[in-house]
Amino acid sequence: MIELIPAIDLIEGKCVRLSQGKYESKKVYNDDPVEVAKAFEAHGITRLHVVDLDGAASHHIVNYKTLERLSAATALCIDFGGGIKTDDDLRVAFECGAAMVTGGSVAVKDPETFCRWLREHGPGRIILGADVHDGYVATGGWKEKSTCELLPFLDDYVGGKGVTQVVCTDISRDGMLQGPATELYRTILERYPSLGLIASGGVGSVEDIRSLESIGMPAVIVGKALYEGRITLRDLEKLAAGQRS
Question: Catalytic residue positions?
């Protein structure tokens, strides 16, 4: 069964969503992310993807106090990303309750540091963020397109540096509710069948989740579809129950 991972994106401590990573498209859905997280947990969810959008657009982690609140108020396994660029950022994220951390920009711009984190904390706690736009990895809160092509980037980290978990977002689909990049994920899984690949971006319905499950996708992040009611908490509960059975 595919693992369901709801997302909470944070700006100024509030639960928001963007479209295609554009900050000017911000829509606030709830002033209290803890309330949102508790609702997910009450409907059978065990893992949460939290993104510090303020941190992603700056040079350091910003919403760590909200991470701390989420961790204290729930038993959810939290994967946290956004703004984690230094050893101090990583320390703060773990101290505030993150079980796992996703690093994207740092893996592109400072691979030595990212690889050291992998060695020191293990691939079970350090996830590679591979956010892609037109075949290239994006950084800096998706505002910058690097010169790293996605597949060679994955070849380097998965094939050579011991990464076992990757969150891959097709930026053009993120927040658009028009379906995930299923063929891209199929290509990656054919290349690395045992990779803990996590799909992100474009999921707009339960059918989209089923289609990812049909290609053997290990996990999927669901965001805007939940906040817009395209996928309900009851749907989550049913899917999570199937996950456990």
Answer: 9, 131
CA distances from 241 to 122, 193, 212 (A): 30, 25, 18
> How deeply is 226 buried, as exposed, middle or buried, from its count of CB atoms within 10 A (0-12, 13-18, 19+)?
buried
Cβ–Cβ under 8 Å, residues 163 and 125: no
Averages of pLDDT over each 10 residues, the chain, 245 residues: 95 93 90 98 96 90 97 98 95 98 94 97 97 87 80 94 96 88 96 97 95 97 95 92 70
Q: How far apart are CA 93 and CA 81, in angstroms?
A: 9
Predicted local distance difference test score (pLDDT) of residue 244: 63
Is the whole model's pTM more than 0.90, yes or no?
yes
Assess contact for 162 and 117: CB atoms under 8 A: no
Q: What is the pLDDT of residue 245?
A: 54
Q: What is the pLDDT of residue 219?
A: 98
- Cβ neighbors of 57 (< 8 A, separation 6 or more) are 23, 140, 141, 143
153-158 — which CB contacts under 8 Å span 24+ positions?
Answer: 153/108, 154/128, 154/130, 154/188, 154/191, 154/192, 155/191, 157/107, 157/128, 158/128, 158/192, 158/195
Beta-carbon-side half-sphere exposure of residue 228 (alpha carbons within 13 Å): 16
